[in-house]
Automatic annotation (TrEMBL):
Plays an essential role in the assembly of succinate dehydrogenase (SDH), an enzyme complex (also referred to as respiratory complex II) that is a component of both the tricarboxylic acid (TCA) cycle and the mitochondrial electron transport chain, and which couples the oxidation of succinate to fumarate with the reduction of ubiquinone (coenzyme Q) to ubiquinol. Promotes maturation of the iron-sulfur protein subunit of the SDH catalytic dimer, protecting it from the deleterious effects of oxidants. May act together with SDHAF1. The keyword Repressor does not apply. GO terms for cellular component: mitochondrial matrix. It is found in: Mitochondrion matrix. It comes from Loxostege sticticalis (Beet webworm moth). This is Succinate dehydrogenase assembly factor 3. PANTHER family: DC11 ACN9 HOMOLOG, SUCCINATE DEHYDROGENASE ASSEMBLY FACTOR 3, MITOCHONDRIAL.
Length: 124
């Protein structure tokens, strides 16, 4: 793959991710957009093998999220995402595990904030 083709592929994927994120609830959209933006910046100068893996994983993410965001799927289930395969953790670096934990903390903090807000509204 030439450099121009690679750049075009990365840009298309980047734009696709942000388009798919539009269907997410507002708080998840902001978190997803920020995370994707940071990850793409972080991998801007990675080696070709890492770039291949990076693009494959983000492509899978975009496809899975797009499937979950279809109106018919949303009517069936009100949840977004899926659990990570525990075996994948064995292949992650310490930095990646810390990053995953930080993302988990941010997501669960927002969920608990929403629950608190919902309970407060119900009491009024």
């Amino acid at each position: 793959m030439s450099a121009a083709e690679h750049i075009t592929r990365v840009r298309r994927l980047y734009k696709l991710i942000f388009r798919v994120h539009r269907a997410l609830p507002a708080e998840l959209r902001v978190m997803g957009d920020n995370y994707a933006r940071e990850e793409f910046k972080r991998h801007k100068k990675c080696n070709p093998e890492e770039a291949r893996i990076f693009l494959n994983e983000w492509t899978d993410y975009a496809i899975n999220l797009a499937k979950q965001m279809k109106p018919l799927q949303q009517a069936k289930r009100k949840e977004v995402g899926k659990y990570i395969d525990p075996q994948l953790l064995d292949h992650m670096t310490d930095d990646q595990i810390v990053q995953l934990y930080e993302l988990h903390k941010a997501a669960t903090l927002e969920d608990s904030d929403d629950t608190i807000k919902d309970q407060t509204i119900e009491k009024k």
